[in-house]
Amino acid sequence: MKAGEMYRIEGPAKVVVRRGRIYATGVEYSDGQSFTVLRARSLAVRAVTDSEVELVLGPGALLEKAEPGEEIIDEWEAGISTVDPSGVIIVVGMIDVGKSTMTAMLGNKALARGYRVAVIDADVGQNDLGPPTTISLARLTRYVTHLRQLVAEKSIFLQATSLERIWPRAVEQIARAVEYARRVWRADSVILNTDGWVLDEEAVVFKRQLIEKIKPSLIVAIQVEKELAPILNGYSNVLILPPPPHARSRSREDRKIHREMGYGRYIFPPVEIAVSLDKIPICNLPIFKGIEMGEELRKILSRALGLGVEKAYQVGSRVYAIVEGDTWVVRKVSGFQVIGLPHDFERGLLVGLEDAERFLVGLGVVKKIYYDKRKAIIYTSSDVEKRMGEVKCIRLGLVRLDDNFNEVEKAMNILKAESE
């Protein structure tokens, strides 16, 4: 490679610098150093000096020379080299504009300065650090070309693969992740990658509330035109950069497949465990915490609802009823708010098994709740089975999976029944 030449590499590939200096993801690699490009991920590299490079290309890998103006790594490098990557940096932008790559670059820059660095991935739909549906945290101790090269050390279960209906909780939990990284890990630099939900009014409210909550030292905005203006309006600590011209755009189906592979990776091979719901309760559905109604009260409730009632539990001013059929019911009856949960409503629900600090121990899928035995049958991984002693509660998710971990439904009705 001649000095200044750029190439695009789509993995899987390994790059070994035999002579000279090569730039990638905010880092210069020299004689004898190497880096990898993950499968289905693309990376632009530039020769800083005349260099000799060995490339090992795996199945399906691609290598092509980038023409002048086709890549923006110099523009990104110039932009982030002017800022101090300490404090909290938040990366915002639409989907498929390179937010994860920018997060890796900023982390590498902070590490090069000798900072203690934490990376947080708050993209619940396409999380690179941990499972789908989570906010995940990891410490950066070596240079990376992709966030996926890191392994989540802590994760927070956000229940869903998009934040439209649950963004107020997301604000609180992302702030908790930032606070944990700074207080417990004593990170000098926290780089926060966000999801690509930015275009509608509620998304703007979410992102602005998040910014107000975490008070970042810098907002790095990857903007195509001026679509981020409503989010950025009024903030001065903003670095606006363009997206890569050759950013790989993934379809909705591609993203769904990516998530489903993620569920399988964190649950497979599944083991079936029986959990006592008295010892490990459901965090967000207090059905066994209240008073179980007797047969006569269930008959009265059944007549009021026009549905058969199998079980019913009074918790304060609410009544949780397990009803026949597949209809969800929310109704006022004699001063009580009655939540009617369909028989088998729990089947296939993704759940988070949480520890005492409300961090994720692991994911699971509910097979069945046995109300008489007050037990749940859950599929989870053998690794999580070994750590069940750490689990203090089970949080029901808003995604329903089939036996092959394919998404079959967004179970948003759970929000009607949640107690927190």
Structural description of this entry:
- It is a single chain.
- Strands 12-11-10-13-9-14-15 form a 7-stranded mixed β-sheet, sandwiched between helices. A 6-stranded antiparallel β-sheet has the order 16-24-23-22-25-26. Strands 4-3-6-1-8 form a 5-stranded antiparallel β-sheet.
- It is α+β, with helices and mostly antiparallel strands.
- It folds into 3 domains: 61 residues; 178 residues, P-loop containing nucleotide triphosphate hydrolases (Rossmann fold, 3-Layer(aba) Sandwich); 154 residues, no CATH class.
- It has 9 helices and 26 strands.
- It is an enzyme of class 2 (transferase).
Compact description:
With 420 residues, this protein is α+β, with helices and mostly antiparallel strands.
Give the topology.
Blueprint: E1 6-10, E2 13-19, E3 22-24, E4 27-29, E5 34-37, E6 42-47, E7 52-57, E8 62-66, H1 73-80, E9 87-93, H2 99-112, E10 117-121, E11 134-140, E12 154-157, H3 167-183, E13 189-193, H4 201-214, E14 218-222, H5 229-232, E15 238-241, H6 252-267, E16 270-276, E17 291-292, H7 295-305, E18 309-315, E19 318-323, E20 329-333, E21 336-342, E22 349-354, E23 360-370, E24 375-381, H8 382-386, E25 393-401, E26 407-410, H9 414-417
Parallel strand pairs: 9-13, 9-14, 10-13, 14-15, 19-21
Antiparallel strand pairs: 1-6, 1-8, 2-5, 2-7, 3-4, 3-6, 10-11, 11-12, 16-24, 17-18, 18-19, 20-21, 22-23, 22-25, 23-24, 25-26
Helix pairs in contact: 3-4
Keywords: ATP-binding, Kinase, Nucleotide-binding, Transferase
EC number: 2.7.1.78
Protein name: polynucleotide 5'-hydroxyl-kinase
